[in-house]
Structure formats: structure tokens, C-alpha cells
Amino acid sequence: MRYAETGYNLEIDLATGNIEKVETDPKLTEFYLGGLGTSVKIHWDRVPPETKAFDPENLLIFSSGLFCGTPAFSANRTVITFISPQTGLLAYPMMGGFWAAELKYAGYDKVVIRNKSPKPVYIWIHNDKVEIRDASHLKGKGALETQEIIRSELKEPRAQVAAIGLAGENRVFTASIEQSRSSASRLGGGAVMGDKGIKAIAVRGTKDVYLARGAEFMEHMNDVTDYINFRNSNPLPGVMTILSGIGSPQEMKHVDERWHTESFAWGNARVRRKDFWTKEIEKSWTSTQLSAVKRFISCFNCPQQCGGLISYQDVPRYMMKCFSKLTYAMGAYVDNLDFAFRIANTAFEYGVDSFSTPQILAFAVELLEAGILTDQDFEGCPPDKEGRFFWLLDRMVRREGIGDILADGTYWAARRIGKGAEAFDHNTIKKHEQMNIKLGMLDPLYYLMFSTNEKISITQIEGNWPQAAFPSREDREAFVKDWPQLPDEKFKQYFLDWEPRGENSNPYYPTPDISSEIVDWMEMVHNIDDALGLCAGMGSFCLKPPYHIHNYPKLISAATGMDLDEGKLKKIVNRSRNLHRAFNNRLGMRRADEKPPEDHWRRRFPEIEEKLLTTYYKYKGWNNDGIPTKERLLELDLDYVVEDLERRGILKDG
Ligand code: MTE
Ligand code: MTE
Ligand code: MG
Ligand code: W
């Protein structure tokens, strides 16, 4: 009997149509936990380092997390892994919704897909019955529309369907995978899915998932419930509203957008509008949002209701959450929220990432204004900002005209366009568009997070530590008083000493040593969530969350019977973290790639930055090039990685 996990993966070879239900080795769970952890191991074992995103050898893995399908609140993430067409590195976008739990109930932990189908197909998983079905009739259909069509043709209203839209079919590098109330958005999973010829994966399951020590597990969950209730009725004082609660940032509930619209940059991450949020704007945005959001909705087994069901004028109904509300309006430099609710529906149907895509469109507009792109490239484009964005989006997902170049994302498009366009690609890290933030003073914590995180996206590493120092000592003292989530008491002192100005502030404080500890902690919690399939909004992504390093081991032990303590859990996630890094090193990633955009902060300090990176690498047990040392790998029982990296000449003399 296997606990928490099902103990089976579904292996699908699209070239031969072969489908196998394969029992997994329980040792792998003990070694890598589940979700992202065990998926990384499969990529390492089976994907040769020469592999490119659109090679048949590129595996596409849909993985539930270890806790998905158990009664653990908010354990609903499906982690999707593949080599990204944008970065050429191992990507892991994820989605909440309902798909992961359904997969567990169908009897599988992961769906591992290899090779390509010669014709468009969708996969239908119904407990033990798994079929590859023709999808020619779904060609060109929207990602949301496709889910409905499949449910109705299967006569399975309760099937959960993950689908791509036109963007994925056309291998647009920012194509997403959309599913019910969620989206696996970043780094081009939709493109890899489209390249393999898969339009959708539908799943329906009616089996049980077992817990090793159910009563004990539920007792721990009762404590988690109490804490969720406590946090929901006690928002944190002293931090901005979106950080005061738990769950994903509650953008569907909050109407006050002064902070985002004035602090983040508009257009191609270029201009800050420090007095944007006037009374009139507030009135108009509030009324648009209140009329658009019909009700709040949650993912599977989650009390937080971070999603908004959008029903706006003549726009078909759809779901929106978090920062997708603002990215298109800010990218297009449009002052009304009406545009945001309109274009998001079109973009979700096409299936594109709403962080990268608006920036790519804004980049094209900038290039036109600079005379690098010409009126000829924009022939037929409406002159107004809104019309122009709709037009560009359409060109991009169809890969028509200039859209074919833009479809590869800012980095690659800039290089294909040439004529100085490279200078307009100013907001990518490792060839991937970042959030539209440009700030004044180098921030050591963010410097490390931006540079080194394997997701290449700040939302996957920031979280448990406040984003800025609190101005008053009393507020800091009050904050640390009740902070059981900390991994170690010494962090309290770090926080007390951290000031908004002076010697103990950015860029000098937190010092490189302290920054390393804080960033490593934040990343570790993310790695745990991504292995368990927990929403980061209940763990790693928010301040003072219900799940943390002191209760994860108890929950995992009761769920799986593994009997972990904090030390053992840390070692496991450290192991998969280092394996992920080694995989990317094998694909060519090195220190030189680990840098935030040059204009991310106006004030940069090259010496401090070098010191930060060197200190952090050392702390992580990586060499000066960001590659795990032999010593660290052996400590983590990753002997096979040492052997491989040495054989390839990537690791020399430890
Ligand atoms: N893109 C689409 N299509 N739909 C979305 O809901 N959410 C955005 C962004 N892009 C979103 C999207 C937000 S708020 C986040 S935090 C990231 O995707 C999450 O990235 P991931 O899905 O790759 O993990
Ligand atoms: N959960 C995990 N484990 N990892 C993440 O990066 N991102 C959060 C939240 N939960 C995140 C996560 C953020 S910022 C958002 S907006 C939502 O997931 C996105 O939800 P979706 O992927 O279901 O669309
Ligand atoms: Mg997502
Ligand atoms: W978000």
C-alpha cells in the first residue's frame, strides 16, 4: 500500500501510441518527495543535455504534488516540467484548479509524455482506461472553449481538462496551459504541448488516496485550520494590503491599485507614473471591477477564493486572478480597466502568459516608435492603443507577419529584428520577461532571488520575508513577537536590525551572509510547496503562512508514514534543488547568466553584487560558477550527478 501518492505514473509515447501504467519506486519519494522533486529526477535520467524544447526527446511531465488529493487544504498544484523554448532550461510552471486531485483519484501521480503525435490529439484518462483521441475538430479552438467541448463530447461534466489555445498550437514561446480556475502560465509549456500535438488532457478519477496515519494527519490539519481562521480575521498591519492576508494576492477583491499602478512600470517596463491614481481613476476602476467580478472562487479544497469569476458586458465568462488584472492595461499604457477585462479573455482563450505577453506587445510598440519596426510591419493595425494591442496579440498567436517574430518572446525577437532592437530587450533574465518593476536602490535579497532562482520568475522564490524594512522599531518588535514560521530564532534579530535607511539598509543590509540565509530559507519553502503541490499562497509566497517548516514534517510523516523531521525534510528538498541546478548546468547555465536586468535598479553596486553572488553560491555549496560542488553533491547522496558532471568536464576537481 502506498500512502499520499498512488505509486503509479502514466507513461505515454506519442510516436507509437503506447500507454503504460508504471509502478514507481517508493525510494524515489523518500529521496525527492514528489511533485517537482521527483519530476526533476525523471528529466535528469531521461533527457540528454543536447535536447532542445521542440525535440521529441523533450519530456513533458504533468505532476500532481505529494499532498494533492489528500485532505490538506490548498494542495492542488499540478507542476508541469519541460525544457523551455525561451530559456532552454528546465521550466516548471504550475496550476491550481482541480486537475491534480482528479489525476490522483484516477490512480496516477504523474503523466509523463514523450515524442510527438503525427496528428493533433487529446488524451482522455478515466481511471484505468486511457485513450489518445483525435483532436482535429479542436484545431484553432480556444483554451477555455476546448475544455467545455471535451467535457460535453465525453459526456463527463466532471472531467478536468487542461488545454492549450491557438498560441500553443502555433508554438508561441509564451503559450500557457489553461485549466478551469487556473493556468500553468510561464515559460512556454503550451508551446511544448502544442509541438507534441496535444490539444488537451482530460482526466476523471473515482479512486481513493490513502493516508498512513489519517487521524494524526487530521489533527495537524485542525491546527492549520485554526491558523487559517486566525489569519483571515487578523490581517497583518504595517504591510501593503496585498501582503496582509494569505492566499494568492487578492487582486480580485482589492480595488485600490495605487501601489501597483504607481510603483510598477508601464509600457515596456519603462515608465513609472507616480501620480496615476487620481480620484477619477479610482472611481472608474472601482466601478469597472465591481461590475466585472461576479463572485469569488477557489481551487480544489481551498478556503481562500483568490479567483474572480468575470462576467463583463458582452465578454464571455472567464476566471481571473492576481496580477493578470493589470498587466495588459499597464503594458498598453491604457488608463481604463475596461480594456483589461476585455483583452484578458481573448488572451486566455488564445492561451498565453499574461506576464510575458503584454511586455512583448509593448516592446513591439516601442520598436515602432523608435523606427526599428516600420509602418509596413504594422500594416492594417488600428491606430488606438487598445486596438493595437488586440491586433498585435492576434498576429502573435497566429505567427503572422511581425507576429511570427514576436511569438518567440522579447529576447529572441530582438535578436531576429536586429537594428538595435537588442537594447529594447531590457527586462529579461535568462531570456525570460520579468515583472514590470524598476526601482531605485539595489536590494540584496531581490538581487539574489532574481539572479539564482531556477524558475527565473520572482513569484517562485520571494515570500516569507517582508519585502521592505519596517520604518519603526516598535513595528518591527511587534512583527517578530508572533512569528512561529521562522526557521530559526536568529532571523528575528536580522529583522529587528533591518532599517529603511542608513547603514543597516539596502544595499549593505541584509549583509551577504544574512541575505544568503534568508533567500535560501524562502527558496526552500517554495521547493517544499512545489513538491507537495501546495499553493504557495498558504506557505511560501506569503507572510506568516499556515504551512511552514515546523508543521510540514509532521504532516508529511502522518500522510506518508515516512517519519521525517525538519533536518531530513531540508535534506530532501536540498537534494532536488541541487539536482535541478545540476540539470540546468548540464544544459549550459553558468554564473554569467545569473544577473538581473541592468536597469532593474537605478543604483547598482557591482562589488556588492559580486560579493552577494559569491557568498550565496558558497552558502549553497556551489562553486564560483554556480555549479554544485562534488562535496555538496556527495553530502546529498547525489553520487550519480558527480559522476555525470565529471565525465562531461562540467565539474573539475570538486
Ligand atoms: N497567464 C495566464 N494566462 N493566466 C494567469 O492566470 N497568472 C499570472 C502569470 N501569468 C496568469 C498568467 C500570475 S499572477 C502568476 S503569479 C504567474 O503567471 C504564475 O506562473 P506559473 O503559472 O508559470 O507558475
Ligand atoms: N503555488 C505554488 N506552489 N507556487 C507558486 O509559484 N504562485 C501563486 C499561487 N500559488 C504559486 C502558487 C500565485 S502568485 C498565483 S497568482 C497563483 O498561484 C496562480 O494560480 P494558478 O497557477 O492556479 O493560475
Ligand atoms: Mg499558474
Ligand atoms: W500571481
Characterization of the model:
By secondary structure, the protein is α+β, with helices and mostly antiparallel strands. It has 3 domains: 8-204, 4-Layer Sandwich (Aldehyde Ferredoxin Oxidoreductase,  A, domain 1), CATH 3.60.9.10; 247-433, Orthogonal Bundle (Aldehyde Ferredoxin Oxidoreductase Protein, subunit A, domain 2), CATH 1.10.569.10; 439-647, Aldehyde Ferredoxin Oxidoreductase Protein, subunit A, domain 3 (Orthogonal Bundle), CATH 1.10.599. Strand 17 (307-312) and strand 18 form a beta hairpin.
Ions and ligands: ligand MTE, magnesium ion, tungsten ion
CATH architecture of the largest domain: Orthogonal Bundle
Indicate the proportion of strand residues. 5-15%
Distance between the termini: 41 Å
Main beta sheet, described?
A: 7 strands, mixed
Query: For the residues shown, what is the average pLDDT?
Result: 97
Total separate domains: 3
Q: Give the beta-strand count.
A: 22
Number of helices: 25
The helix content, as a percent range, equals: 40-55%
Radius of gyration: 23 Å
Q: Name the structural class.
A: alpha+beta
Poorly predicted parts = none
CATH topology of the largest domain: Aldehyde Ferredoxin Oxidoreductase Protein, subunit A, domain 3
Summarize the SSE layout with pairings.
Layout: E1 8-13, E2 18-23, H1 26-32, H2 36-46, E3 60-64, E4 78-83, E5 90-91, E6 94-95, H3 99-106, E7 110-114, E8 121-126, E9 129-134, H4 143-154, E10 160-163, H5 166-169, E11 177-179, E12 182-184, H6 189-195, E13 198-204, H7 214-233, H8 241-244, H9 258-263, E14 265-266, E15 271-272, H10 279-292, E16 293-297, E17 307-312, E18 315-321, H11 324-332, H12 337-350, H13 356-369, H14 385-398, H15 402-406, H16 409-417, E19 428-429, E20 432-433, E21 439-441, H17 444-452, H18 473-481, H19 490-497, H20 512-532, H21 552-560, H22 566-586, E22 601-603, H23 606-620, H24 630-635, H25 639-647
Parallel strand pairs: 1-7, 8-13, 21-22
Antiparallel strand pairs: 1-2, 3-4, 3-7, 4-5, 4-6, 8-9, 10-13, 11-12, 14-15, 16-17, 17-18, 19-20
Bound molecules: ligand MTE (2 copies), magnesium ion and tungsten ion.
